[in-house]
Amino acid sequence: MKYVFVSGGVISGIGKGILASSTGLLLKTLGYRVTSIKIDPYMNIDAGTMSPLEHGEVFTLDDGAECDLDLGNYERYLNISLTRDHNITTGKVYQKVLEKERRGDYLGKTVQIVPHLTNEIQDWIERTARIPVDNSGEEPDICIVELGGTVGDIESAPFIEAVRQFQFRVGSENFALVHVCLVPVINGEQKTKPTQAAIKDLRSLGLTPDLIACRCPKELEPTTMSKISMFCHVGPDHVLGVHDLNSTYHVPLLLKEQKLDEFLVKKFGLGDSNLSQERITKGEDLLKRWSDLCSSVEKSLEVVNIAVVGKYTNLHDSYLSVIKSLEHSSMKIGRKMNITWIESTDLEKGVASEEVYNENWAKLKAADGVLVPGGFGSRGIEGMIAAANYARTNKVPYLGVCLGLQVAVIEFVRNILGIEGATSQEFDESTPEDKRAIVYMPEIDKNKLGGTMRLGLRSTKFQPNSEWSKIRQLYGGKPEVFERHRHRYEVNPKLVSEIENHGLSFVGKDENHLRMEIFELKDESHPYYVAAQYHPEYLSKVLEPSRPFLGLVAAAAGVLDKLLADEQLNSGSKADF
Questions:
Q1: Which residues of 416-435 are buried (b: 16+ CB within 10 A; e: fewer)?
Q2: Which of 79, 120, 180, 324 is deepest in the core (most CB within 10 A)?
Q3: Cα pseudo-dihedral 399, 290, 478, 391, rounded to 10
Q4: What are phi and psi of 412, to 5 degrees?
């Protein structure tokens, strides 16, 4: 097993996740099987109880793990399915060590950070790196490990020490370290001192980088690269310039131009001799498809404008998978994506100022399509309900995700069924039962928040006589699909029949045909009015976009009928890369 560690210096949020994903992609284009691990040095067991405004979106895996958003990057770029063990946190590691101590596994020894905690981290990495993550079911060849946070942070210290020990544990021929640093531009001059200081800190902790990836707004000048090489004690060819690009999907190609993949092949002593021709061919095909996709995006002239009406729009990372799914879908149909961000409270009269209210309603009405994503809590709900009503009554393409389904059901129950004051049990526990459009799922633990939702990959079965459904056609006409869930509430079963009798059809239900999973407005004059209780954005891939999102973007661009007629789409085929 070969290991590539990606660490960061100077500041957090510097782009380690994209660089780690891009490195993995490049190795995959050579025919190797790649897996990824993310280390988060926070004390939480997982990200499940964090606010999206605190740490960005909570990405959910097949096994129900609530984890860091960077695991979404890995899955999207590498087309793999990770597990809860692929996200290591300080909380998880301490929990594991303390469990062993309570069992007496340490045979009476004094349990310490070194060696017990650092050994547990190393064991965890080695064990997890060998878990199959793709359709082949075979062990990966290379593991990319991203160390979250910034080197020098007190929280990261045990992990840095574990990585220092790990390089000797696996041998230098199986270990590579890429350190990502910031090169700021001050008064037009590229400054190298922050990078020099970061590398000095790294070396003082016993780690020497094989490659230094320099993030900079502009392309690195030769003199800057030469200076970093000299003062950071690496070869000139080992300094990579990663400047701002039109799209993060160009980063793998930028790194390939600088021969990152060739360096790692040489470092690890890899070659084509131990790969089958089939794997080499698949890798070459992946690189071509990726390059073609990036090229086609650059040539796109037409723009599709989607309004995202959410509760956490001040931090766009709160909706990272949603953003990526929209981008994947727009690239699929050859359009440029423009996202109009609308904070849902700004659509509420009396909450927002009149100026802000009018401005945001003008934004909504100018959009080609409307998306209401997931979220929790009562703030901004009336604005979301108003957006769903606008999309339904004005025949504007609409996609609701999780909470977006629930608010659209509430809107329909209020305005079509005539149940005034209908709402969700989440927003008002005292709501009379006959006005509860959305209710708690009976199996949910109301007193414990962490890991108690309906989580992970689950079946959705399309209902009989739903062949007319556009969303079913987008899924290739399949009778059953599997998507990832993260929710505590569901449509009130007592209202389902009445809702369907008025034209909002629940075309997809759970495996027991009891829980509402997908609705679609049965109205031929409406281009696309669809919502899902699950989170389709979690399974969207760069070269294989999420079908509900693809439907929204295609409908907003006016090409949905053409897309549905496409034979490849209707066959339900999926690219194997």
A1: ebebeebbbbbbeeebeeeb
A2: 180
A3: 10
A4: -65, -45
Establish whether 101 is a catalytic residue: no
* pLDDT tens figures, 435-449: 999 998 877 666 666
343, 490, 517, 537: the catalytic one is 537
**Ranges under pLDDT 50 in the chain:** 571-577
Whether the Cβ atoms of residue 8 and residue 180 lie closer than 8 Å to each other:
yes
216 classed as catalytic:
no
- C-alpha 262/C-alpha 248 separation (Å) is 21
Query: From 3.40.50.880, 3.90.1150.10, 2.40.50.100, 3.40.30.10, which CATH number describes the 301-570 domain?
Result: 3.40.50.880
Per the CB < 8 A criterion, the answer to whether 498 and 422 are in contact is no
pLDDT tens for 242-300 read 999 888 899 999 999 999 999 999 999 987 667 888 999 999 999 999 998 888 777 77
Q: Which one is catalytic: 86, 179, 487, 535? A: 535
Given the residues 402, 411, 487, 544, select the one marked as catalytic. 402
Active-site annotation holds for 535: yes
**pLDDT score of 525:** 92
Q: What is the pLDDT of residue 368?
A: 97
